[in-house]
Amino acid sequence: xxxxxxxxxxxxxxxxxxxxxxxxxxxxxxxxxxxxxxxxxxxxxxxxxxxxxxxxxxxxxxxxxxxxxxxxxxxxxxxxxxxxxxxxxxxxxxxxxxxxxxxxxxxxxxxxxxxxxxxxxxxxxxxxxxxxxxxxxxxx
Length: 140
Fold this sequence. Notes:
- The protein is an all-alpha fold.
- It has one domain (about 25-130): Four Helix Bundle (Hemerythrin (Met), subunit A) (Up-down Bundle).
- It is about 80% helix and about 0% strand.
- The protein contains six helices and no strands.
- The N and C termini lie far apart (about 35 Å).
């Protein structure tokens, strides 16, 4: 009937992710970007540990794209140009560190970027709009 190269669990995850994105607020979309980048780095660290270089390369590249094309690109000028520039510089630093991790097969930069993203994610979660909390209560 239908031919696909995806396993059923992969198909489900794609549908689940698509639904999460289509129903997410802008604040939640940024949370999804943080989660995606952190997840990719964790996968890269595991791949590096197990010697799975193709997966390491793919997942580090994925994290770099999420940071550069997602998080950095999503910065909006809200009257805080210094904050925006600081975040852009931090995201550039993260991408640079991930590049070096990929080049030198080093876990240290991967751990560093995962830690930085985790801290930013926590800060972002702490400033969630009140409306997002009210909306989440309605869904529960």
